[in-house]
Specification:
Oligomer: single chain
Strand content: under 5%
Number of domains: 1
Length: 154
């Protein structure tokens, strides 16, 4: 046998976890304690406010765009993949000013989605992301109106 064959051997191991009822009670108490602390922590609430759906007034959040976006429970990757065509994703990139770099990289749909999500999750882009979501929500409402739809080029 040579050295190459020696390095290709598999390693096998078994893992056994000992678990009893007393551990379960202790763990559930600790978990409840941590969840209570997490819900009451001011830093966590600030973080959730920043990362939750955009902080708009309640009447704006009732728009169909936000209802559809909330349906995906914050899974932006799945949301963009299911709800947007490549052409629509490029509109978002153009709005953010990143279309030229996406085109230059010859990105596929999943790469474009990842780029958009990365851009939207950067704290310094919060204002433009908030503005785009608001504008897209208004556009969706205008496109749903049969009379107004004829006046729009989208």
């Amino acid at each position: 046998m040579n050295d190459d064959e020696d390095t290709k051997e598999n390693i096998t191991f078994f893992l056994e976890d000992s678990f009893n009822d007393n551990d379960a009670e202790d763990n559930s108490f600790e978990l409840e304690k941590m969840m209570h602390q997490f819900q009451n922590d001011d830093d966590t609430n600030n973080f959730n406010e920043y990362n939750s759906a955009i902080n708009f007034s309640e009447d704006i959040k009732d728009l169909s765009y936000f209802i559809k976006k909330d349906f995906y429970c914050g899974n932006d990757q799945f949301y963009y993949n299911e709800e947007y065509k490549l052409k629509d994703l490029m509109k978002i990139c153009k709005y953010y000013g990143i279309a030229s770099s996406v085109k230059a990289s010859k990105c596929k749909k999943q790469d474009i989605i990842s780029t958009i999500i990365y851009f939207e999750n950067s704290q310094e882009n919060y204002d433009i992301v908030e503005q785009r979501h608001k504008m897209w929500a208004y556009m969706a409402e205008l496109l749903e109106d049969p009379k107004m739809r004829g006046f729009l080029l989208w």
